[in-house]
Every structure is written in C-alpha cells, then in structure tokens.
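Budget justification note: compute hours in this period were largely spent on complex prediction jobs such as the one shown. Inputs:
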Amino acid sequence: MPDACDSPHQSLAIEASLQGGAYGFRRERLRLPMGLEASFGWLRHPPTLMVVPRWADGRVLLLRRYRPAVGQRLLEFPSGRLAAGETVAQAAQRLLDRVLGPNGTEAGPPAAAPWEPLGQLRPNPGYSDERMALGLVRLGPQQTPPANDTAGDLLQGDDGSTGQRVSLSPAALDGALASGDEPLDGRTLTAWFLARRRW
Amino acid sequence: MAPLPPPEPSRLLETVAALDARKIRFEINRWQLPNGLEATFGIIRHPGASLAVPVLADGRVVILRQYRFAVAARLLEFPAGTLDEGEDPLSTMERELQEETGYAASRWDALGSMLPCPGYSDEVIHLFLARDLRPLPNPPAGDADEDLEVLLMEPAALDAAIASGAEALDGKSITAWYRARPLLNL
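Corresponding output:
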C-alpha cells in the first residue's frame, strides 16, 4: 500500500487527556519517524462509515443534517459509527433502516443492501485517528423516493442532531456543490467524487 | 432544491472541561440546540486552515506525500497550513505553498471553503487553485515537524490513485480537487 508506514511514530508520554462521549482527546509526547520529539493534541475516535445511497431511478439520497459544531445544516450522506462486532455492510443496513424506516418509503427499507466499497477516508488526518469506510448502496426497484423529498426530522445523530431527507439527480447535486453557496462537507464530497465514477 | 437554510448557531451554555494542545483546543460543552434540546458533547476548536491545488503550466499538480501521526500513514495531500492569528487565508496559503513545495504562484483562484469533520470540529479550510508557478531558488524553511516529499503528478494519475482503493484518502485534498477540476477543464 503506497501510504503504509514501515516505521510509525513512538508514544513517549500521555501528558493529559479528556474524554468527551465516544471520543477522547489527548496531549501526547511523540517521537516522529523523522526523529523529532514534540507534544501533539489529537482525538481518538471510533471507526465510522458513510453510505452513498442510489435510488433505482438514478437519484442520490442525502440528508440535510444539523451540525452543532458548525451551526449549519449540511448536505451529507448518511454516516455513523460502527457498533462493536458489526461489519461495515451491517452498519450500512442499520443506517439505511434509520433513514428509510418508519416514516420512509411506502415499501419500507430494502431487504438487503449490498455494500460496494469506494475507499477508506481519513476525514481529519492532522488531529484525529478517525477511519471512515466509504461505500455505495444501490436501492432496489421497489424503493421509490416519496413525492415530497423531505420526510420531517429524522433522529440521526448521537448528539441529538436531526436530518431531513433530500433526493437529487447527480447533476443537481453537482450543481449544488459547485454553486459556492453550499457549505461543503469534505466527507460527502469525497464519497461523491468516488461514487460518481460508477453511477 | 429548496433554498439553503440560514446558519443556526447553537447556544453555548457551559464549558464543562477543556484541554489545550498547540494550535487546537478540545472542549466539552453543554449546548442548547436550535430545536430547544440540550446536549453535552466534545468539540475541537480550530483556528482554520488554507489549502491550495498547485498546477504547473504542463498540467501536472504539485502534491505531497506527508506523514500523519494521527493515522500512522503517509497520505497524498495538497499543501496546506493552519492560519496564524489574524492572518488572512490567502496569505497563509502563499506562505505554506513556498515552505512546503518550494514554488511560488502568481495566479490564485478561490475555490470556496470546506468543513473536514463537522461532527466534532469547527475547523474551516479555505481552498485555492494556484497557477503560474515558479520554483524558488531558496525556498523558506517549513515547520520542523513536517515530514513530507514533494511529488508532481498528471491529473489522470491522481484520479487513478484516489480511485485505486489502496490510498488512505485525505478529504480536504479530494474536495479541493473536485472544486478545481472545472477551472482546469477536466
């Protein structure tokens, strides 16, 4: 693997740490592969996934999701943490059940969601160890987006954040992302860049 | 699509605990969300950053293979850097481009800004396209903790690397590349 590292850094001491829910922050003294020793702050985060759901009619399913950390409603693909013992495909199914579930499509959530891996993202390699699996899921022909493409506030996040469904054609999503008006979520952009090639 | 919703800041009720580390700070805060709910969660406070896609006259991009201790890997990334206090994003980028790549640019286009991890960080990264590059005979020294190698890549080779499945992907670089491509007629 081109990015594999034969001689990673060494931990010398954890100087301070603070746990905030599912993730913890630490200030740690490290010796980098180049030999330099210094203190760095970084977040330890559980592994995550982001799923790009493709409707059978070729549209893409996103959420307009409120993010307290930036105080905005961002256009995002469904994402979340991997539960203990869960495979990425199982977690993708769980996320889709949540997004399409009780107040989702008339047909209900898809019976099976084959996971097509798109890549492995490091959303914030400067100060977080988060590893996010990106994948595409093609919804079955029995799944149709509701005529009105928003479905109330769906409870999504562990931080109490909520999201509304948004279904767009690929061209409409490209247009929104190129408009300059839309605050850009780097994880969603990366997933879309990869999914678009195999749409 | 429906019009873009306006920003809706949450109200900070209390900072329960905080830890500083160099340029960033981790806070555990109690918030009141716009829907009235109260929630307590951790957030990284970050001064913001800039990133540039530098493109040579022959179409090749200047890109870095950089060691990142947090993920213990060498990622393919465009040059970027953290804003110094009071510094405007373009000035940061002009400085970082010279330090990290040894090139200076005389043509700049803004590509908007992006949020790398909106779930737990308030960081905003300002994106630029840098053209009309010239190599500097004596490039300024960069940060002592940066461990990087400068590469020149054809756009098709970069696309292939991103799609290969073999790279650990840097979201800010791919976002900037997505935004730069139309300006490069790609």
